[in-house]
Automatic annotation (TrEMBL):
Keyword Ribonucleoprotein attached: no
Pfam families: GxDLY (PF14607), Lipase_GDSL_3 (PF14606), Rhodanese (PF00581)
Rhodanese domain: residues covered: 389-496, 526-599
Compositional bias per record (Low complexity), positions renumbered to this chain: 600-630
Protein name: Thiosulfate sulfurtransferase
Taxonomic superkingdom: Bacteria
Keywords: Repeat, Signal, Transferase
One GO molecular-function entry: hydrolase activity, acting on ester bonds
Family annotation (CDD domains): SGNH_hydrolase_like_6, TST_Repeat_1
Signal peptide interval: 1-21
Amino acid sequence: MTHIRLHGLLVAVLLSGAAWAKADEKPIDWRDVRSLAFEGQGWKDVKAPFDRLPGKAEGVVRPPVWSNSRNSAGLCARFVTDATEIHARWTLTSDRLDMPHMPATGVSGLDLYARDDQGHWRWVAVGQPEAAKNTKVLAQGLKAGSREYLVYLPLYNGVSTVEIGVPRGSKLDPAGPREEGRRRPIVFYGTSITHGGCASRPGMVHTAIVGRRLDVPVINLGFSGSGTMDPSMTDLLAELDAAVYVIDCLPNMAADDVASRTEPLVKTLRKARPDTPILLVEDRSYTDSTFLDAHRQRNETSRAALKAAYERLRAEGIANLHYLEGESQVGDDGEGTVDGSHPTDLGFMRMADVFTPALAPLVKVADAAAPAEKGAWLIGFADLEKRLGEPDLRVLDARPRAAYDKGHIPGAVWVDAKAVAATSTKPGALSDRAAWERWIAPLGIGPKTKVLIYDANRQLDAARFWWLLRYLGVERVGLIDGNFPVWAKDGRPVTTAIPKVEPVPFPVVLRPDVLATRDQVLAALGSKSSTIIDARSEGEYNGTVKFSQRSGHVPTACSLEWEKFVDENGRFLDEPSLRAKLATAGVKPDDPVITHCQGAAARRSTPSSSSASASKPATTTSAGPTGATPPTLPSQPNPRNDGRRIRVVSNHHDAVGTPGLMKMS
């Protein structure tokens, strides 16, 4: 009896403690995610709350398209809370939580991100589904303070309800409107890959990664097995006020369908949206195509059909039409997919690395034109002097350290050319994001920093860093029109004080669009829509002066010597003069540019000049470490300029387009 009483007393004590603990817990206040800053849904007149197509599309689009549109891929909500724990509850429309090649966290889970102190999105937690109805603590023990969060909904399942909860007394509000110029969405239309197969969680599909990197909303219209450029979908796409249309349907289409459907789709969109950029995307390479000829041939034939349609549309005068190649989207090591076709998280990250720089110049963010408001890349002395001391301005001094120590523009930070050379001359340097992030962090450059660079020469060193920072993903970088000796001679402020700069982690996003490969240069030789600029001297161009192993110039390249763009004071020609020179060479404002030179220095000012007078800035290729002439790259001794449009940029006559290193001299 004593034992029973003791046992009963123990149970009573435990129950009492549990009751007190329950009483101490704060109740959770819940909000429907649609009452927060809800994004990713292109239409409001939907049949169910989290559909991706309007109700009127049922019976109009093909049944598999409609069925897939009930999945919540790409839908997300931004909110602000000061809670130290965040809860979620969601009800799925299907009890199929996962797929054989895709985990439940990606198919049916939630994914939570937050902005850090620098404004970058960072992953926080994933909501792991266990049944059709789920209630989870997404995160607890969060650092105190109010911050913005982003929650993604499931990729391959539908939801009937989704709520976010915080302890009572905590703030839970919709995030504020996006900045002006960042409110229109990128609209992705495509296949199961665009849909999200096979990301491990909703935030890891490339469309979401691109949205976070560019900080713009995204509408995901990927439909598994059904991204086939259907006319019914084309009409729906045309209803959306997109920042950019991304058409990525080749994985679901044979070459004949690509040939017959691409042009009607583009023309329909262009008629409805005359000024909206359209990006046509080749299919990713099957990662088993090295061994399976059928997969290799499928890639080749569908790409050829898309490229031919693109060229026809361009020839017809369709403007603001762009093209993204597929060969390197998931990498070239065969490790980027789960089944040869659908990307893993690694593959999606690699895709984002390709898509982000292709889309960045097309998403016309309102403040991306800084620092000089007009002509983003160049600012004069008077304007710069007025802006010295602005908190979001970073001036970089590209002169030798001894010269910097003797006097520099107030607030200017010295950039170490030797350190850059040491980094850039390592094998694979241009693709080593981690190394570049270590280099750039001490410069204190954040996502909204306006960067201006100067040197003591004719923009040679400054333009080197201008190109490098653009390549690393710095959005707002420009040159100062004039060199430091002239600044000092004019009596403008000079100091020897070294500014204190707090390191800022900068997420490098490499921009292959400003770096032409050898294959791209070779392709430009026979393309009527591409022209190459040779920035060397006239003697080097015509072969009478030889500094490289082979004399002459690349066939079809036109001559625009870099020294004719910048005077001895480091000042560029005025805009009308620049336009006249480029027009003489056949450059049109809407066309991209390819330039090259003998070494890394002479090339630099020419693409800068091209950016000053053309709406699309130039890109550059990497120079080979040895300067050896690739035997397959032709050269000819006589000048030729047939007025063709200029497309890409390289930087070394002996190694045009050779994969390797950016030569820093």
